[in-house]
User: Which sequence fits this backbone?
């Protein structure tokens, strides 16, 4: 019995050691990717009134609300989130860190608690024109590892939609083209290399982005990607780092004409660049 006890203990210690090494390796890769994103990040000059010369209302109202005239907004931010991620019919809690930069690019590194003491590590990114997605149970057992191809436009659309957390990246000087739709909506388009995307932004009376929408974001279905309506809502705006940004958001696929949320998150902390290249 004593021998069995020690064998079980050694096996448990070995498993814990393997998980710790896998977690450390995962973190090193994320840190290297964040450093690459920081290297690619473009500087952010002062926001001036002439930046809005070619921007239609209500998008111009949004920029006047979210940025300060004659102030230099950050070019990169590190955001910490808490929230829930939908897996099947169940919502699972997550914590994440995201680096968002005027590169264009982002890196989202999350831990989703799928069972007591068991996390799935997830890393989504768009860096250097390439989208990628990795997931592994305890950072050890891979469940997804994809890169490029149909991921690129979806990742760039996500980047464009998350511009509400770094409003300067949505300015025309960084390649975003705005077109009026009506008094509350405008379309933002962005090209990066061979990838071009657009999103419809809806603004409220306060000049805040209430939601973004596209009828054609690529969604994986049985190993293949299909264009699917997608939206994100944001609210609870507050000033952070000299910007007015939403602290709460919800993201959904639209299936059978109904939104089905799969991500709900809230900002718990934010740091503004220049930043050390760590996640």
Assistant:
């Amino acid at each position: 019995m004593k021998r069995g006890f020690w064998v079980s203990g050694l096996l448990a210690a070995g498993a814990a050691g393997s998980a710790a090494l896998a977690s450390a390796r995962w973190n090193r890769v994320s840190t290297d990717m964040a450093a690459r994103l920081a290297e690619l990040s473009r500087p952010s000059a002062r926001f001036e009134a002439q930046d809005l010369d070619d921007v239609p209302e209500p998008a111009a109202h949004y920029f006047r609300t979210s940025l300060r005239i004659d102030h230099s907004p950050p070019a990169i931010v590190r955001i910490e989130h808490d929230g829930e991620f939908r897996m099947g019919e169940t919502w699972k809690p997550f914590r994440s860190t995201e680096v968002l930069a005027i590169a264009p690019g982002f890196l989202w590194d999350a831990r989703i608690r799928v069972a007591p003491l068991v996390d799935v590590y997830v890393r989504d990114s768009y860096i250097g024109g390439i989208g990628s997605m990795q997931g592994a149970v305890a950072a050890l057992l891979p469940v997804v590892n994809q890169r490029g191809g149909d991921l690129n436009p979806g990742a760039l659309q996500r980047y464009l939609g998350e511009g509400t957390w770094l409003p300067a990246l949505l300015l025309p000087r960084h390649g975003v083209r705005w077109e009026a739709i009506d008094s509350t909506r405008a379309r933002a388009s962005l090209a990066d290399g061979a990838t071009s995307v657009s999103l419809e932004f809806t603004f409220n009376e306060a000049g805040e982005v209430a939601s973004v929408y596209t009828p054609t974001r690529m969604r994986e279905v049985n190993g293949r990607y299909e264009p699917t309506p997608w939206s994100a809502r944001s609210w609870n705006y507050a000033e952070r780092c000299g910007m007015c940004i939403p602290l709460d958001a919800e993201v959904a696929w639209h299936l059978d004409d109904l939104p089905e949320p799969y991500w709900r998150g809230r900002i718990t902390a934010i740091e503004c660049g220049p930043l050390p290249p760590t996640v």
